[in-house]
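#lab-general

N.A. 3:47 PM
ok so I finally got the sequence cleaned up, no stray characters, all 322 residues accounted for. can someone with queue access submit it? mine expired

B.Y. 3:52 PM
send it over

N.A. 3:53 PM
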Amino acid sequence: MLIYLLVILGFVLLIYGGNVLVDGAVAVAKHLKVSPLLIGLTLVGFGTSVPELITSLFAAGMHAEGIAVGNVVGSNIVNILLVLGTAAAIQEIVVHLESFKRDASFLILSTVILGIALLIGRINAFMGLIMCGVLVFYTIYAYRMDVEQEKRNQPAPAPTAPHRTRHHIFYSKELWKSVGKTVLGILMTIAGARVLVENAVVLAERWGVSETVIGLTIVALGTSVPELMTSIIASLKHHGSLAFGNIVGSNIYNALFILGFTALFMPVEVPRYIFFDVLIMMGVTGLLLYFGRNGKISRREGRIFIGLYGAYLVYLAIGTLF
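B.Y. 4:20 PM
back already:
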């Protein structure tokens, strides 16, 4: 009975934490006078990538490079096909076209850098430093560009309105309350994901489900559950740009930071059997950019993503059986 209660607790933490995270992230964006898309790309994107980071660090430390690399490649595929697909199927996602072009460029760059590093077969400390450096540059660049865009989009203030500089904004008590709320939401979704996955695996084993099926479903999806819940809740609350930013940000962090940061401490050997999945990841990323070329992901395109994820699971199952 306890294990069933823990599974339910995991779902409750995910749903409530996702609500807190989305509300906090939107409030942070308003206080900083930046778009929810940027907050999704940075604060939310990084926060929901923490499970992947922890998983890859532990896996590399245990010389289980297949898990470390497969975690990143698989998460990026899941994020686009299942997570973003589900969010778009619920509510069409509309993103400012100029922001989409900016972030799409870095998504392409990060995916190409990751693809080259993986195809070389080994990620060393020097390559890890380059990957982390590109991520830092992107974060600073995205923030500056977003601030300028928000200034252009806002009407001129009334002459009597008090002038409040961005420097003073950072001392706002309301801002730090919103940041705290966002961090709390991130921690709750991560804790919920861990409780749900660990106990769901135990349940699956009790029910006699094979280890292969467990790996292809519960464990493979586990580290992407925070992104899934955050994006679904953001979509339901009509914050589609936050859902989109969450996925793009998570994939950029996954591609550049997770393996890059891991490689700073220990070289990451890439198993050869993962190469075809790397090509799938690059193809899926290209499809996302094609669908979003007009600044939106329609509900129909969301359903296509979900269908493709189902096909990918079938491919994995066939590959495992034969």
